[in-house]
TrEMBL record:
Family of the protein in this entry: Belongs to the class-V pyridoxal-phosphate-dependent aminotransferase family. NifS/IscS subfamily.
Names of the cofactor(s): pyridoxal 5'-phosphate
Name the UniProt record assigns to this protein: Cysteine desulfurase
A molecular function GO annotation: metal ion binding
Source lineage: Bacteria, Bacillati, Bacillota, Bacilli, Lactobacillales
This protein's UniProt keywords: Iron, Iron-sulfur, Metal-binding, Pyridoxal phosphate, Transferase
Length: 388
């Protein structure tokens, strides 16, 4: 893989220890964990040990962790099953306008079934107002689903404050932590979180594996119908090698390592900002540029340069960046996140790129990326000057 990969918010490369662990388990723990003979017992032991590691990482109990195929399934399960199970208590749900499509599309489906959804607006930093949230909360609200951190602009939501508000309310609180798990410390008990979604491939683990944290006392039927795996909470034969690899990735991300990476990524942001400024590039940051944002995500409005042109030219120069969420980057539709922040008519929507850092990036790579952006910007503006 190229060392100039800057789309880590979309996915991350598996590290060698994670690959080694997955490969080892594929040769030693390939039995069906639901069977009672030795092959199955070996797989079940590996899965139980992995569940312990993962539960500890968010201060949860082992029986509160449900392994899934990833963030989308976890989000869909939490949103749809909560709504269908609790609709006799009310049909009102609160979310934000900048959630991932794995939340928004299930909510649109629920709207077609008669549920009422409040989409909280965000300001130009991509942040909601707690006053707006309090005003939206009703007696018949049954679910609040608000992401921990935004995947496009890096804004962080007041999860702790929301949890405090909801701890004595009937609404269950779900947070999509796909973009933050493995990067920020998470304590589901301290934050009064009822459900939390993750995906391993965002923290250098394998794809198609994740988990849904579901607090004890939160009950609904399995979203995937079939066998009785995961104590009847998620049907389907468990992917034990991927689960073990996920746990390995989690064990590598110690609190000290998380802090080190956060400091490193914040420094990378400063390097790019300074280098573009020195090069005379006309740009602005979409969102915050401080420690109240996700340090690995940097969304830039490069004024006068289309996203498509800049992304394409950077690709030709050997740099992988994004025009937005990886799940919608191939769409002709504008970013719903930038639209919610700046309005449909803002030029930012078609002139912004997302840079996201990971463990493979070096400071030299970051400097080269900034220089490449500056070179492309000046080249495009020279061409436009000739044409005009």
């Amino acid at each position: 893989m190229s060392e100039k990969y800057f789309d880590n918010a979309a996915t991350t490369p598996m590290t060698k220890p994670v690959i080694d662990e997955m490969t080892r388990q594929m040769t030693t723990s390939w039995g069906n964990a639901s069977t009672g003979y030795s092959y199955g017992r070996q797989s079940k032991l590996v899965m139980d040990e992995s569940r312990q590691v993962i539960a500890k990482s968010i201060n949860a109990s082992e029986d509160e962790i449900i392994f899934t195929s990833g963030g989308t399934e976890s989000d869909n399960t939490a949103v749809i099953q909560t709504a269908l199970t609790r609709q006799k208590l009310g049909k009102h749900i609160i979310t934000t306008a900048i959630e991932h499509e794995a939340i928004l599309k299930p909510l649109h489906y629920l709207e077609s079934l008669g549920f009422e959804i409040t989409y909280l607006p965000v300001d130009e930093n991509g942040e909601i107002s707690l006053t707006d949230f309090r005003n939206a909360l009703r007696e018949d609200t049954i679910l609040v689903t608000i992401m921990m951190g935004n995947n496009e602009v890096g804004s962080r939501m007041p999860v702790h404050e929301i949890g405090e508000i909801l701890k004595d309310h009937q609404a269950w609180f779900h947070t999509d932590a796909v973009q933050t798990y493995g990067l920020l410390p998470i304590d589901v008990k301290a934050d009064h979180i009822d459900m939390l979604s993750t995906s391993a491939h965002k923290l250098n683990g394998p794809k198609m594996i994740g988990f849904l944290y579901r607090r004890q006392g939160i009950n609904f039927p399995s979203f995937v119908r079939g066998g009785d795996q995961e104590t009847k909470r998620r049907a389907g034969t468990e992917n034990v090698p991927a689960i073990a690899a996920f746990a390995k990735a989690v064990s590598i991300d110690t609190p000290e390592e998380k802090q080190r990476r956060q400091e490193r990524y914040f420094h990378f942001k400063q390097v790019i900002i300074q280098r573009l400024t020195d090069a005379g590039v006309d740009f602005e940051v979409n969102g915050r540029l401080d420690q109240n944002s996700l340090n690995h995500v940097l969304n830039l409005w490069i004024k006068g340069i289309s996203t498509y042109v800049l992304q394409t030219d950077l690709d030709l120069a050997g740099f992988a960046v994004s025009g937005g969420s990886a799940c919608t980057a191939g769409s002709i539709e504008p970013s719903h996140v930038l639209t919610a922040m700046f309005g449909k008519q803002s030029p930012r929507i078609s002139e912004s790129i997302r840079i996201s850092f990971g463990i493979m990036n070096t400071e030299e790579d970051v400097k080269e990326l900034a220089d490449a952006i500056a070179e492309i910007v000046h080249k495009v503006k020279r061409v436009k000057g000739v044409e005009e």
